[in-house]
Amino acid sequence: MSSEPVKPRSANQSSAAKGFASGKDLASGKDPSLPSASEDIAAFVARARAMSPHATGAKGRLVFALDATMSRQPTWDMACALQADMFREAAALGSLDIRLVYYRGLNECRASGWISDSAQLARLMGKIDCRGGNTQIGKVLSEARREAVASAIRAVVFVGDAMEEAVDDLCAKAGELGLLKVPVFMFQEGHDGAAEQAFREIARLTGGAWCRFDPGAAAQLRDLLRAAAAYAAGGREALLRLAKTANGAATLLGQMK
Question: Which residue intervals of 50-131 are DSSP H helices?
Answer without folding.
Answer: 73-91, 118-126
